[in-house]
């Protein structure tokens, strides 16, 4: 997470203040309640001064983004609402909103070449996982988890469009980066396998599948799911019927079932 003013990167302060800013950015345009801000920072054990600390963090952030704002004046960007706070920022200033705009345009255009270019431009805005450096909250806060899901779905759509249009090579760097951020997303990994194979990199695709199979076994104690297996079968039989990729909800259900299983392995 970064804020830039011209070429300069601004100092975002300590972890609590960065969490407040991260949640406001993730919910850009929507009001974030004071209780959600408190819960995000302290989870189940907020101090008696939690509300005052959040207010001070908001004040510091307001001065950061509008350094010339008079004391107690209402800012343009960070405003108080009845239920909490809202960050007002447009797509020209926030990468998340620009990402969403590019993805929407990619999904609406009828030109596959343009769609692939828009998708890759959108995915290039991701430099890492959402709220990196704010773990463990980054991996559990619903707003941050939802943004990770947006990225993953955009990467899958980019792959599907590129594979249909014969443009696999154009999306492989973005797919590889997205798959690296979410190595257990089998739907995404399956599409990376197919893209590599479509670009003539069968050996690399086989190596990737073997690595994924080992990781699924080591970390989750399971084998490849139907979608990943279908992509592997396509590698083995490139002239056979096209691999069938599961819709995202089916993949999500499989991952929820896996996450609910007790893990018997000791590491």
From TrEMBL:
Keywords: DNA-binding, Transcription, Transcription regulation
Classification via Gene3D superfamilies: Tetratricopeptide repeat domain, Winged helix-like DNA-binding domain superfamily/Winged helix DNA-binding domain
All residue ranges annotated as the OmpR/PhoB-type domain in the record: 1-89
Residue ranges for the DNA-binding region feature of this UniProt entry: 1-89
PANTHER family listed in its UniProt record: TRANSCRIPTIONAL REGULATOR REDD (PTHR35807:SF1), TRANSCRIPTIONAL REGULATOR REDD-RELATED (PTHR35807)
Domain of life: Bacteria
Residues annotated as transmembrane: none
PROSITE patterns documented for this protein: OMPR_PHOB
Family statement: Belongs to the AfsR/DnrI/RedD regulatory family.
Protein name, UniProt field: Winged helix-turn-helix domain-containing protein
InterPro entries on file: AfsR-DnrI-RedD_regulator, BTAD, OmpR/PhoB-type_DNA-bd, Sig_transdc_resp-reg_C-effctor, TPR-like_helical_dom_sf, WH-like_DNA-bd_sf
Species name: Paractinoplanes aksuensis
SMART domains associated with the record: BTAD, Trans_reg_C
SUPFAM superfamilies in UniProt: C-terminal effector domain of the bipartite response regulators (SSF46894), TPR-like (SSF48452)
